[in-house]
Amino acid sequence: MEKVTRKLPLSIQDFEDLRNKDFLYVDKTSYVKRLATYGKQYFLGRPRRFGKSLFISTLKAYFLGKKHLFDGLYIGEIEKEWIEYPVFHLDFVGEQYTSEYYFNAKLDAILRVFESQWGKDEADTTFPARFSGLIRRAYEKTGKQVVVLVDEYDKPLLESMHNKDLHEIVISTLKSFYGVLKSMDICLRFVFITGITKFSKVSIFSDLNHLTDISLSDEYAGICGLTETELKDNFQPELKALAKNLDISEENAFAQLKKNYDGYHFSRRSDHIYNPYSVLNTFYSNYFEYYWFETGTPTFLVQMIRSFRLDPRKFSTNDVAVPIDFLSDYRVNGTDPVPVLYQSGYLTIKRFDSKYNSYFLGYPNEEVRYGFMKNMLGVYSPADVQIMNSFFAGDFVRKLEVGDIESFMSMVKSFYKSIQYDAIDNEKKDEKYYQLIFYLLFTLMGQFTQIEVKDANGRADAVVKTADSIFVFEFKMDNKATAEDALNQIDTKEYLIPYTTDGRKLFKIGAEFSVEKRGLTRWVINN
Question: Within a 10 A sphere around the Cβ of 42, how many other Cβ atoms?
Answer without folding.
Answer: 19
